[in-house]
Every structure is written in structure tokens, then in C-alpha cells.
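In this section we walk through a basic example: taking a raw amino acid sequence and producing a predicted 3D structure, encoded as C-alpha cells. The instruction is simple. Fold the sequence below.
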Amino acid sequence: MWLTDTQKIGVGLSAFGFAMISLGVVLFFDAGLIAIGNILFLAGMSMIIGVQKTMFFFTRRDKLRGSFAFFAGFLLVLIKWSMLGILIEAFGFLNLFGDFFPVVVNFLRHMPVIGRFLSLPGVSQVVDRLAGFQNQLPV
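The resulting C-alpha cell sequence is shown next.
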């Protein structure tokens, strides 16, 4: 899968946005860093999949609760209530992107070092439960 130059820039913006959000949380919930990280993440996402598809993603009927929570948390961060805002944003993020966790776990299991760690007996069961894998057969 080849990425266009715009999509590559979008991946960089999203990664930098996550880094800024993480740095803002580590530095005692600094609202400025978290807000910049949110803006970079949204800009990166719109550059990766396009503005129209981004709007469609956030306004889908099954994603409205997550979208509302994410943007409400973003608004709380902007008015300097960063601790409550990041918690509400995290809830929205999990509701929006929770469907992608099994895909991410499968991707990580195919990586050299991380894959071996995720395949350990105790770790494998915990990761499967967190990602939402089903242990039973559909019979």
C-alpha cells in the first residue's frame, strides 16, 4: 500500500499530535499542549482520509456518541479544564476508534519483538480480552 505525499504528511501530523497530547498529559495536563495535539491529530486525520470522509466518519449515526464526547472533551481542554477534558476525550476516542483495536493488535503481533511479547501466554489472554477477540467458536 503506497501513500501519497499528502497522506504521509497526515501520518506525521497525527503522530506529532499524539506526541503533543502525551507530553501535555505528562506535564500535569498542560491545556496548551493538549489543545495543539488535538488540532494536529484532527488535521492529520483529515489529510490521511480526506476532509469529506473525515466529516462522514464523525457524523455517522453509530459514531455520534463518540464524536460528541471527543469534541466536548476538546472544548473542555480549550477552556482550561484539561483533566476532565482529556478523560472525556479518551472516552470519545475509544468509542470512535474501538473497532480498529483488533486490527492494530493483529498488526503488532506480526512485528518481530512486540509480536513475541504479545504471544506470551498471560499477555496474550489480556490483550485478546482488551481488543475484544472472541474465544469461542461461532457454532
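Looking at the output, two observations stand out. The first helix runs from residue 5 to 26. DSSP finds eight helices and no strands in the chain. In the next section we compare this with other chains.
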